[in-house]
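Discussion board: Methods & Data

I've been asked by a reviewer to show the raw model output for two of the constructs in my manuscript, not just the figures. I'm not sure how much to include, so I'm pasting the format here to get opinions. Each protein appears as its amino acid sequence followed by a line of discrete structure tokens. Is this the kind of thing reviewers expect to see in a supplement, or should I convert it first? Here is construct A:
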Amino acid sequence: MVRVRLSRGGGKKRPYYHIVVVDQKSKRDGKCIERIGSYDPNLENEKRITLKQDRLEYWLNQGAQMSDRVKLLQKYSLDPDNLEKRSKIKSELLEKNRLKKQKAKESEEAPAEEAKTEEAPAEEAKTEEAPAEEVKAEEASTQKEKT
């Protein structure tokens, strides 16, 4: 059976995908029958997804099946407002993450202030203990004098 799927290219941490027509049993990056497009997830412009629609239709008519990811890429490539929607969603996610980090920072500062207020009474208790120790030392010295 023939499938339309992605074949990975590019370097480490820099993915680049070819949209290819291959036999179902072949390897992911193995020999392909035909390259019908590409997908570069690092780009943020119209060249992000290129797809030859006529060749895709030809292979689908021949009985080829598309992978789920290729179906999504086809849908995105046909949508003219795709880039605007993507940038809007991305900005919303960035704003959400920024607010989450800000809340975490504030919550870290609040326990730190409480810890400071708890340390102050502890220091006072230490100063109270010090005179008691001096009193004990004086008592011990007076007892030595008596003997």
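Construct B, same format:
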Amino acid sequence: MRRFYFLMIGFLFVFQCYGCAAVVIAGASGGVAYTLTNVAYKTVSYPLDHVKLANHNAFKKMGIVEKNVCPINGGYRITGTTDNLTIEVDLEMITLKSTKISVDARKNFLVKDKATATELIDQIVKILQ
């Protein structure tokens, strides 16, 4: 009987992973793509400094408190919080005129908020336009 329970838990884990793969494929069709870890990303045709300022304004518009801005290799990591989420935005310079935006919005270690990550990228793009 014990072996049966372990087998069932194993099947649930495998099916859970296949479900994630389906979400990755479906999510890519909306203009914002997702990694297997549910991090939203998009490359935009704007310089890094413009995207950084647009991110700051999008945080304000969405009520996200900006906590930290750290330079990272080729860009910035910007951390923000809400009452329920920790949001980490990586801005990476691809060229002088294009920047990759990656947004990880998480409730806790296991639960991520893909809708908020997508909306933040959409707001950054609107501000840039």
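Answer (T.O., handling editor elsewhere):
This is acceptable in a supplement if you add a one-line summary per construct. For B, something like: The domain at 31-128 is CATH 3.30.310.240 (TATA-Binding Protein).
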